[in-house]
Amino acid sequence: MSSERPTRLTSPVSDQDHSKGPDDSPVTLVEYGDYECPYCGQAENSVHEIQERTGDAVRLVFRHFPNRTVHPHAKLAAEAAEAAGGQGKFWEMHDLLFQHQNSLEQWDMLEYARELDLDMDKFQAALDEHSHSKKINEDFRSGIKSGVQGTPTWFINGTRYDGAWDPESLLEAVRKPMGVRISALTQEFTRLAASGGLMLLIFSALALLWANSPFAETYVEFWHTEVGIFVGNLHLERSLLEWVNEGLMVIFFFVLGLEIKRELTAGELASPRKAALPIAAAVGGMVVPALTYAAFNSSNPIAMQGWAIPVATDIAFTLGVLTLLGGRIPLSLKIFFTAMAIADDVGGILVIALFYTSEINVAALFVAALFFAGLLLLNRWRVFSPLPYSLLGIGLWLAFLNSGVHPTLAGVLLAVTIPTRSPPNVSRLMAQTDTVLNRYEYGEEQVREQALVRTLKTILERMEPPAQRLEHELQPWVTYLILPIFALANAGVPLGGTDGLALLNPVSLGIIFGLVLGKPIGVAIFAWLATRTGIAEKPIDISWRQFLSASVLAGIGFTMSIFIAQAAFQDPRLLSNAKIGILAGSILAAGIGWGLLSLTSPHYDTVTKAKAEPAPATD
Q1: What is the predicted pLDDT for the residue at 1?
Q2: pLDDT per position as a tens digit, 249-261
Q3: Coil, helix or strand for 585?
Q4: Residue among 315, 309, 308 nearest 263 (CA)
Q5: Which helix (H) or strand (E) holds 61?
Q6: 278: closest CA among 298, 296, 264?
Q7: Pairing of strands 234-239, 159-161
Q8: What pLDDT is recorded for position 494?
C-alpha cells in the first residue's frame, strides 16, 4: 500500500567516515548534521552525554548534511571541519564549530584553526580550493538515499532513530536489553514495504503445504467448521472460511476505502492531471487481461464468470518486489504503482458490486441504506468519535450480509463516511506550541507537565485527520494478521491427482496469460496512449523500457484475484483451477518483472547521485 521514505542507512560506515570510539563497539551512532543548524547545536549536548555515560560501548560517526538554502555558512563550516580532519583534528574543530554557531564566517574558521595550532597555509588552501567538497557531497548524497530530510538525523546500528533527542531517550535506544532488541527487530520488519508481501508469501506456502500434506483433509474440515453467534432468537452462523472472507475482509476493504479516499482528496489521484496516468494504466490493466481471459473461455458460459479474476493487482507484493530492488528504482515509479493500484482497486470494487452479487433482498438493502444514511448524518454533524461509526458500521455489514450484495462493500461505504478535516494552519499551531512551551516554567511541576503533554497531544491529533489516523492504526492489523489469515484460508489448493493438469485448463491458462501478458500490455499501451494524446505526462526519471518492465509486476494478482475467484465460482473444481492459475501467474509475473527491472534499471544510482548532489561551492 502506501510507501514511506527509507529507514535504513544505505551507505555503511567505512574508513572514509570520521568516527569516535572503537570500531568494534556494539552500537554505532551515525549522525547527519549541519554546523549552522540550531537543533544540531542543541542536540550536541545529548551526544556528548551519551559518550560520557556509555564509554567504548558507542561509536559516534558524523556525516555532513549542509542545508545551504537555510544555512548559508553550513557548507563552509563542513569544509573547515574536513580541512582540520586532514591534519588530525576533525573532532576538535567539530566541537568549536558547534560552540560558535553564530560565528561561521571564513575569518572565524581561520581563528579556530589558529586556536587548534593547525598549519595555516594548508588549512587556507583547503578552504580556497574546496578540497573537501567531494567528501561533503558524498555524505549529502548518502543521506538523501537513506531518507534524511532534516538535521539532526541519527541512525543506530543502521536503523533510523525517530525518537526524542533528550539524553535519556537516546540512551534507551542505544542500551536496549535483549527483549527490547527483539521488539525493535519486529518493529523494523513491520516498517519494511516488502514485509507485507513476505507475510502473504509465507502463509500461502503454509496453506499449500497443509492442503497437500497427509493431513489435507483437516485443512478442508477446519475451514468449513461452522461457527455461530446466537443472541436470543437471532443467530448468525457461517463457516470459518466465510467468516474470513465475509467478515475479516470487511476490515481490509475498510482500510482500502480509506486509502482510496486519501488518494482522491490529497494524493496522486487528487487532481485530473496527476490522476490521468495511473487511471489510464489501471483501465488498460483491467480491460486487456479480461479480454485475454475471454479468449480462452468464451465458449464456456460458466467459466466466463471468472473474467474479472486477472484484472486485479496485489500492491503488497508489487511494492515488495520494487522495494527489494533498492535504490535502482526511482521513487516516482513506486508512487505511480501505488496510485495505479488504488485506481485498480476502485475498479475491482465496482466489478464485485456490479457483477458478483446474488439475488437481491430488497428489504435488507433498504435497511443497509438506512444505516448508510445514518453514517452520512454523523459525517455531516462532524462527529469524530469512532464509536457511533463502529456501531452503525456493524449494522451496515449485517444488512449487506443478507442483501445479496457482497458484504465487504460495507467496509468501503463505511470508509467513505469517516470524516476528514481541512489541512491545519501550521503557523498557528506552531504559535500555540510556542505559547505552551513558554508557559511551562510557571506553576507546579506535575501540573505543568500534565498540561503540556495534554495540549501537545491535542495539537498532534489536530495535525492528523481522523480518517488518516484510523488508516495508520488499522494498517498493521490488515497487513500482518487479516491478509495472512486470508491467504492461509484460501491459498490451500491440492496440486496432486487430476488437479496436476490444472495449468492446462482454459480457466488457469486464461488467468496466467491475463496476468503475465494482458496486465503489462494493457498498462503500458493505455499509459502510452495517455501520454501521446497529452492527457497525462510520464515522470521524466522513468524510461519506457523501465516502465514496461515494472508493468509486468502488476500481474501479481493474488489477494484481490483470489477474492474475486471466490465470488465468481461455486464449482470447487473451477475455483481450484482458478487459484492454481492465480498462484502460477503471480509467481511468473514477479520473477519476470524482477528480471526485466534488473536489466533495465542498472544505472539509477548514478542518476540519483547527480540529482541529490548539492550546489557547487562558490568563493
Answers
A1: 43
A2: 999 999 988 888 8
A3: helix
A4: 315
A5: strand 58-64
A6: 264
A7: unpaired
A8: 83
The pLDDT of residue 162 is: 83
Grid cell for residue 544:
519506457
Q: Detail the DSSP E strand segments found in 232-335.
A: 234-239
Cβ atoms of residues 418 and 376 within 8 Å:
no
**Contact yes or no for 605/328 (Cβ under 8 A):** yes
Query: pLDDT at position 439, please?
Result: 58
**Residues in the chain where the model's pLDDT stays below 70:** 1-5, 175-194, 268, 326-328, 421-464, 496-502, 602-619
CA 111, distance to chain mean position in Å, is 48
CATH number of 242-356+406-419+509-603: 1.20.1530.10
Domain 18-186 sits in CATH 3.40.30.10 = yes
Measured CA distances, 530 to 178, 264, 277, 288 (Å): 54, 19, 7, 16
What 3-state class would DSSP assign to 60? strand
Edge-to-edge strands of the sheet including 153-156? 18-20, 58-64, 27-33, 153-156, 159-161
79 CA to centre of own chain: 36
Q: Which H or E run contains 59?
A: strand 58-64
What is the distance between the terminal CA atoms of the chain, rounded to a whole angstrom? 47
Give, as one character, the DSSP assignment of residue 537. -
| Bridge partners, 156 (sequence order) | 29, 159
Contact 208, 492 (CB under 8 A): yes
H/E stretch holding 32 reads strand 27-33
Residues ≥6 apart with Cβ < 8 Å to 330: 539, 541, 542, 604, 607, 608
**Which tens digits make up the pLDDT trace of 107-138?**
999 999 999 999 999 999 999 999 999 999 99
Backbone angles phi, psi at 539, to 5 degrees: -55, 135
Domain ranges, ordered by start, for the chain: 18-186, 242-356+406-419+509-603, 426-463
- 545 vs 439: CA distance, rounded Å: 59
CB neighbours of 14 closer than 8 A, spacing ≥ 6?
Answer: none
pTM exceeds 0.90 for this model: no
Task: List C-alpha distances in Å: 73 to 42, 493, 619.
Answer: 18, 65, 12
- 547 close to 538: Cβ distance less than 8 angstroms: yes
For 441, other C-beta atoms within 10 Å of its C-beta total: 7
Nearest to 512 by CA among 591, 596, 588, 592: 588
Instruction: State the residue for C-alpha cell 492489523.
Output: 477
